[in-house]
Amino acid sequence: QPRLPLRQRLAVASAVAGVATAGWLYLRHQKEQQQRARRLRQLRQLSLGQGDFELCDTSGTPRRKADFLGQWVLLYFGFTHCPDVCPEELEKLSRAVELLERDPALPPLQPLFVTVDPERDDAAALARYLRDFHPRLLGLTGTAEQVREAAAKFRVYVSTGPRDADGDYVVDHSVLTFLVDPDGIFRDCYGRSRTAEELARSVRAHMDTY
């Protein structure tokens, strides 16, 4: 049986490789979609972020969770006297928002910082503190009860440590950044090990599949 000319053999081999590559990419895409869907189901079972909260921003304006419907939200709970963890996490959050802002086709994203230390973090303290981070990072505070209720809705652990001789203290709390979709539904959370680039990629993936 005569063999095909070399050029034709190469064309056939290239076509076969192209089909195989397309099939592999399709299967990988399907697997990633299934993994995201499974993770989303697992996260929804946690029932995090359900219900509303009522706090105030740095201008004293009352803010509720419902005010942010229609936009994506990245939410972090922390406190301004935190020596290292909170600044690092807010820098990472700010960097992730900047990365996402490079694509004007993406939907609106609002970064939020909710204090877990309302005794020291009033509106003025928050405003001073947040000047060092993303310009759209919105700080929220309130009464001790309001802050406690907001943290509880996301199951954020908060424990105020003992006061020292100067009356200073540290607040131990969960170190997580939460992603909430435009419907006000919790979509994902990110711990300290995630980089800003990983966080931005994850948020983009959720936006793409929303």
TrEMBL record:
Keywords linked to the UniProt accession: Copper, Disulfide bond, Membrane, Metal-binding, Transmembrane, Transmembrane helix
Gene3D superfamilies: Glutaredoxin (3.40.30.10)
Cysteines paired by S-S bonds: C82-C86
Name of the protein in question: SCO2 protein
Pfam families reported in the protein's UniProt record: SCO1-SenC (PF02630)
A GO-annotated cellular component: mitochondrial inner membrane
Ribosomal protein listed as a keyword: no
Location relative to the cell: Mitochondrion inner membrane
Record bears the keyword Lyase: no
One MF annotation (Gene Ontology) recorded for this entry: metal ion binding
GO biological process entries: mitochondrial respiratory chain complex IV assembly
Annotated family: Belongs to the SCO1/2 family.
Binding-site positions, Cu cation: C82, C86, H173
CDD domains named in the record: SCO
Organism: Toxostoma redivivum (California thrasher)
Membrane protein topology class: Single-pass membrane protein
Stored InterPro entries: SCO1/SenC, Thioredoxin-like_sf, Thioredoxin_domain
Gene encoding the protein: Sco2
Residues covered by the Thioredoxin domain: 44-208
Chain segments annotated as transmembrane: 6-27
